[in-house]
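Check the record.
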Amino acid sequence: MERKPLRLERTKGSEILFGVGPCSLALSQARRELFRLFLKRSSSRRPVLSEFVLQATARGVPVLHVQRRELDELCRGQVHQGVCLEATPLRFKSLEDAETPGSGGEASGDRQVIWLVLEQIQDPMNLGALLRSAYFLGVDRVVTSHRNSCPLTPTVSKASAGAMEVFDVYSTDDLQSFLKAKTAEGWEVVGTVSKPEDVEDVPVISCLEFQWDKPLIVVIGSEGEGLSLETQLLCHRMLAIPPGRALHPGIDSLNVSVATGILLHSICSQKQSHGD
């Protein structure tokens, strides 16, 4: 007789993380309250699952071995790799926390600070990929506009390969006022554009030509729409990625996370060379 799937009641206020990277990193950090770890029941003992049991035991998190279909139900059919973790959600941090001395990323005494600012990024896969690139390439802070932006969901954590679990993400209710304040503090603000001909009143240069010698904010616009006009006008310069060939209409731009990765590598490589 076929065994009926176990009905699992969720803890109030919890969410389900899924995937090896997000669950392992969430267990290793003290940023979430953790309730239960769910592992796929299997006849063979995978070393990675044994390591999860050790991590959960060390944190006092109960471990449940369940059928694959129960994991599928928990994470609504996402790719879970045999692991789900019930935990409280992560929230954006306030910018006041980012300004606290000693919190990291402050400009005082360090001209090679870079913050990535995201305006209305709505796709969780894009947000996760952006966080993964920012973390890998050495961005000091990520700040997102609160309005019309994707929250920090389990899908974002999975798309970030777990970077969201170790990398603080900040939010602002007033992006334009934030950029004006940083400009007044001596930061340079640069925007990004896929079609230079669409930009007016702000100089546009190739990312290959861009040099920086002061604290820097790189602003990335939303999928499809790009930066709002109000934000563009607060940028000192706009950066463009030169294509490698003549492009057909309709395929003349890059995905926002891919473009950001290219721009950040170009910019952050200067940071590394200056630090040598």
Summary: Residues 110 and 247 are 40 Å apart (CA to CA).
